[in-house]
Amino acid sequence: MIPSFIGKEHLLQAIQQINCEGVPPQRRSHDYCLVYDSRHYPPKYIIAIAHKIATGRLLSSNEFSGGQESNGFLESRGFQVVECNCCGTVIPVRRLPRTVSSTSSKAHPSQLATHSKRCPECKLRVHQLLERIYGTCHSNYSFLWSTQAWAYKGTPIFDTLQRVLSALTAYRGYGDFIKSERLPPCDFFVPDPGFLVEFDESQHFTIPRKTALSRYPPDSNVGFSIDRWISLCDEHNAKDNDPPYRDEQRAWYDTLRDMVPPLHGLGPTIRIYGGDFPWCLLNPQNDNDVKKFEALLKGAQNLLPASSGPVSVYTVALWQDNDDHTDEHRLDMLKQLLDSISERDSGPQLILLPGGYLGTGKDRRKNADMNLVTLQTQVATTLRQLDNRTWLCLGVDGEDGKDQLAVAVSGDGIQAVGRKFHPAPGDDNLKPAPNYLSQENDFQRIFTFAGKHWYLAICYDVFGISQLELPNPGVDAILNTVHQFWPRKRRDIPASGYVYFARLGFAGASKAWGCPVFGTAVFFQQPVPERWPTAVLWKSGNKLPRQCRYEDNQLWPRSEFRVSSGAIQALVRHFVVS
């Protein structure tokens, strides 16, 4: 029996895939053919491929019948099936010339008028153009991302997903349209620099899709014009009632493709409207056509909304006579800090504390996860009293320093977690993250606050950003939780001086990613140096960071003040990020 959730969209994608890959001899049809765009395709193989696109599994020919069952299924979705003895041999796709043409392909108005907006070659051409520009592009690419809204609880998109899901459910009363546990494949995935491209044909522009888009926040991190996509929904008002909830289902999956990628460090999802242009006329071997398409992609990325406004960042650098302290001492200091900052500032505040702010204490076997409980209870409860306008970023260590995490926490609990990925010299026992974008305890290390995207770094991670030449995953700033500095260079950590950290660590990462770096640390047996920067913005061109002077820094505090709690002293600096 053929599953009813296979829609026309899946069948069209199957046609595109067969255009690229052909039909295996054993899967040809001897009696009937699906005819689409003057080409013949074997009905059962089309359905099998469509099932794989929808679920990730190829539907076996033993699971359903040819003839009446397959033909009727395809006809019910608007396709033409005819008696034919050509064995379902696909007419080959016209191959593009390998030489670069001297003229660009241009569409005549008559071509725009007669061109099919569901032309399968258009999507194929977009794939070829993306490959020409970026080298590697995967089509029908599957991520192991959940389709359930609850799976994103604790992330910045959870509230939006809840609003969208409630609105789609209320639209026509269909409450059970999420049929797949994992998100169906995206149209295209470009792994470097990392973003999705969706090719939207008319069936995507429905009232349920408009309903979903209307619930997006104004600062949504998407690579297309939300207002225009809403207008296209009004213009097309497409309907696909097989199954009856198909439009709501498609709108929900499109919402996830828009919202989820930035959680995984990917760039904004770019959407291309199939009706804007006969994309099949663009030649991937023609430099002018490639430039035209590349300009379209850049234009889509420039549609990203401006951030919601300035946000205050407070860096908290500590100094202590020795490291004989407990988490209780640090929590007492935290309460003093929150009281002092809330008296001065009523806007959105991001407070950055040093690495290992909460640690193993006397139990050196305790892992970092145990300290996360404290964040979820005591710290979150305190923040909740500030109307969730204040978030904390701090370091949490465990197992005598083997576990090193940076955590963002709000009044609603933990929002993001990052594990140290770049060991310092001598970090032989460290438990590093697999890479600089990996998840930790199901949390991302990139989070959104006040309309901006922030990256959590732990101590030597800033050196890894520049030394490993890692690409910026779309963040506006780096928050670096540095551990400690002592008066004399530590023999077990070469070049651990605070000047070295400011030049090659903060400045190096700022130059590499083109964004500010905020950093804090604990200074033992010495006060925080007055000129040591807790924020660096590098704008010195090709000058090497090791040659920088403090005067080269472009980011300085608006104000600073001091807070004391027992033996712990804090220098608090206030920065504003526009």
| β-strand number | 19
Helix content class? 25-40%
What is the CATH fold-level name of the largest domain?
Answer: Nitrilase/N-carbamoyl-D-aminoacid amidohydrolase
Return the domain count: 3
Can you name the CATH architecture of the largest domain?
4-Layer Sandwich
What's the gyration radius in Å?
Answer: 28 Å
Please report which band the strand proportion falls in: under 5%, 5-15%, 15-25%, 25-35%, 35-45% or over 45%: 15-25%
Average pLDDT metric? 80
The CATH class of the largest domain is identified as Alpha Beta
Structural class: alpha/beta
Q: Write out the CATH superfamily name of the largest domain.
A: Carbon-nitrogen hydrolase
Low-confidence stretches: 91-114, 302-308, 491-495
- Ends apart, CA distance between termini: 58 Å
- So how many helices? 14
Shape call: elongated
